[in-house]
Amino acid sequence: MTTTEMVGQWRTEVTLRTHGVYAALGIMIAFNMLFTPNFATLSNLRLQLVQVTPVVIVALGMAVVVATGGIDLSVGAVMALSAATLAAVIDHGAWIAMGVALVAGILAGLFNGLLVGVVRVQPIVATLGLFIAGRGLALMIAGGRLTEIFDPTIRSIGTKQIIGGLQVGVLVAIGLTVIVGVLMRSTIFGKRVVAIGGSPQAARTAGLPVRRSLIFVYILSGALAAVAGIVASARSGASDPSFVGLLIELSAITAVVVGGTSLAGGEIRVAGTVAGALLMQLIFATLIRHDLSDADARMVQAVIIVAAVYIQRDRLR
Amino acid sequence: MTIDTTTRVPDDGPLDDVAAHWSRGSVTSLIQRSAAAIVLVVVVLLGVVLFGSKFASTANFANLAVSSSFLAIVAIGMTFVIISGGIDLSVGSMYALAAVLAAYGSQWGSFVGIALPLVVCGALGLVQGTLIGRLGMPPFIITLAGLLFARGLAFKVSDNGNKTYLIGEDRWMKVLGQGRWFGVGIPVVIALVVFAAGSVLLNRTRFGQSVFAIGGSEEAANLMGLRVARVKMLLYALTGALSGLAGMLVASRSSSGLSTIGGGLELEAIAAVVIGGTLLTGGAGGLTGTMVGVLLLGVIQNLINQVGTLRSFHQQVVSGLFLVVVVTAQTIVGRREQS
Fold first, then answer.
1. Given B152, B323, B328, which is nearest A299 (Cβ)?
2. Closest Cα in chain B to A196
3. Tens of pLDDT along B148-192?
4. Torsion angles phi and psi, residue B283, rounded to 5
5. Nearest Cα residue to A125 out of B40, B334, B53
6. Cα Rg for chain A, rounded, in angstroms?
7. Which among B37, B157, B184, B253 would be 20 to 30 A from A122, CA to CA?
8. Count of Cβ atoms closer than 10 Å to residue B134 Cβ
9. Which domains, and CATH codes, for chain B?
10. What residues pair up with B180 in beta bridges, in sequence order?
11. With an 8 Å Cβ cutoff, are A133 and B131 in contact?
12. Which chain A residue's Cα is nearest to B268?
């Protein structure tokens, strides 16, 4: 193989790696428009967006954590904590309740951040603690029960349609995507996050505030998970700590990886992550609509994840 | 390593690294290993003081041992993978798949009921190992996909969870789950045999030394001429087969194959391994610690069950906080030893 060919092949791979997710998303949408009846209706598209909203919000935080070379397994449990605290203080008004839920998420993130940044426990073990304890704590707060939410302000997040017929929750997700995108692309914090992921040692030597940045990254992930918990509870009209956000950490990690970010850290693709979440949602919905069972859909998803990682495999290493 | 940020580069050469493994970190690892054991003793004494013969009865201990044996078998496989610097998230789903396949297979006789889950889970593990070892794909993602795939397959075999296969009254394989041998439950005996065999494999064979070497430094292991890819393939086949064994035993015990069991078992196993002092960075650890970790989690659960008013979520909180405390202590002690 000549050098030119090798460079050519390398370019193809890089392009496929960075933009493959958009191509796949385009293909899925085209396929559905052609072969799935009632796919291109507004109501269906809206439904798909509403269903994927919590995953997108959580995946944004996960992408930032992964960029530092870490991982946050506790996001589902933090969603449960957020939902439980939301319901516990709902009598004091919707805004206070949402504020308290957000604070719960921030505290959870701070806990993870201190373990990872200060004690320097590995992220997977540090967040495993809250993964196990968080949902239990949420159930303790909620007395082990599901609580219905009647508050009209909170319900409207899941039901009220504004701009373009999109629900408030969906708009929140879009807004957060833009904020995280700008944060990562145009601020010093964003550069630091990527630098820490690239080489923590070098970042430390260069005098970057590694500890503080890591704490903030996990706080961000916790806060976003809390928002996802509020949005999910608002949509279902109930705070259900046993099931809200169950296994969402896996969907979020999948979205990040399918979106083209390496789990090794040192890079971030915010738009790719959102596209990854949309792609997995669309694939699942398509398989179900075409009469594949839930069991088959899971197996196909597994194969797609492996294929996505295979394409993105880092040959240069 | 793909999942950690704080990989410590071994400061010795690769050859020294393997040989001097335990001696270099012997004080640290001694503290780490005995810390979990000391806590176990304290917790057991606490149980005796608080609940007396309600806790410290032969029946309760026998019960505790049997219910811990399934996690123990899974965690032994997990220890191997973690020492090699990898991780296996698929074990919980494999466990459920094995339970379903054991019950499904038992309609053609006990032999099929025992062999089918072991072969299928071992083969799925081998596929994961091939993708990880030969193609160099990250274990976290591959076994995450394996988690989805195996659970999907378990649902598929059981008609999307609508059908639960039962193991017939006349099948002798039930002895494996329900029988006793000198008063000890057969699952406990099997777990102990797996532990003994695993210890020999890990500490006394070429394969075991390769596992340590790969976890210490994969590059160095490669340069030493170790067959890294093949070791990894075997490793994931081993965790698959052990999860299969545990799932088959639990099906034999309950006479049925439920496709919904084992959710989160992978993280419980990882917790047990970490509490037992095996480092997630790879290259260090042992099976004895893992067994202590499994027993600790089991005893905590058992004690919380003794308090009638507490529920399973209280146990989650205690276990989770416990993990954090142990890991924090280990990390701080480990750092002090290093500096």
1. B152
2. B5
3. 999 999 999 998 878 889 888 888 888 888 888 888 899 999 999
4. 90, -10
5. B334
6. 20
7. B37
8. 13
9. 14-338 (1.10.3470)
10. B185
11. no
12. A132
| Nearest-10 crossing angle of helices A168-186, A152-159 | 80
Measured between alpha carbons, how far is B297 from B25 in angstroms, rounded to an integer?
26
Cα A307 to the center of its chain, rounded Å = 21
User: How is residue B238 written in tokens?
Assistant: 């081993």
What pLDDT does A9 receive?
64
**Measured between beta carbons, which residues in chain A are less than 8 angstroms from residue B160?**
293-295
Residues 177-236, chain A, touching B (beta carbon < 8 A): 196-197, 200
Q: A137 contacts in B (CB within 8 Å)?
A: 313, 317
Which residue, A124, A116, A40, is CA-closest to A74?
Answer: A124
Residue B203 CA from chain centroid, whole number: 17
Q: What does the alpha-carbon distance between residue B98 and residue B160 come to, in Å, rounded to a whole number?
A: 16
List domains and CATH numbers for chain A: 8-312 (1.10.3470)
Separation in Å, CA of A50 to nearest CA in chain B: 23
Structure token digits, residue A134: 């968080």
Q: Is the ipTM of this complex over 0.85?
A: no
Contacts with A125 from chain B: Cβ below 8 Å: 270, 274, 280, 323, 327
